[in-house]
Amino acid sequence: MDMSTTSLSMEQQFKLQVLREQVKSLTQDQAQEYLIEVMRQSMVKENLLKHWMKNA
Asked: Band of the pLDDT at 3, cuts 50, 70, 90?
């Protein structure tokens, strides 16, 4: 993979910074639930990509 594939765009970097600020105010329980949901969504995305690649 080249750097353009693994680097974040300016917009993504901004969104990440906004998220950093937002998660600072979460309780530990909220942060754990948030992390679990992010992982779930990542797994769904991975499954969709695998399905798409298989049927392409």
From this structure: low
- pLDDT for residue 2: 63
Q: Tokens 């901004």 map to which residue?
A: 14
Q: Could you tell me the CA-to-CA distances from 40 to 1, 7, 12, 34 in Å, in that order?
A: 25, 23, 20, 10
43 phi, psi to nearest 5 deg? -70, -40
* Token pair 């937002």 in the structure block, residue: 22
**What is the C-alpha to C-alpha distance for residues 11 and 9, in angstroms, rounded to an integer?**
5
> What is the largest distance, in Å, between two alpha-carbon atoms of the chain?
43
pTM of structure? 0.72
Distance CA 8, CA 14 (A): 10
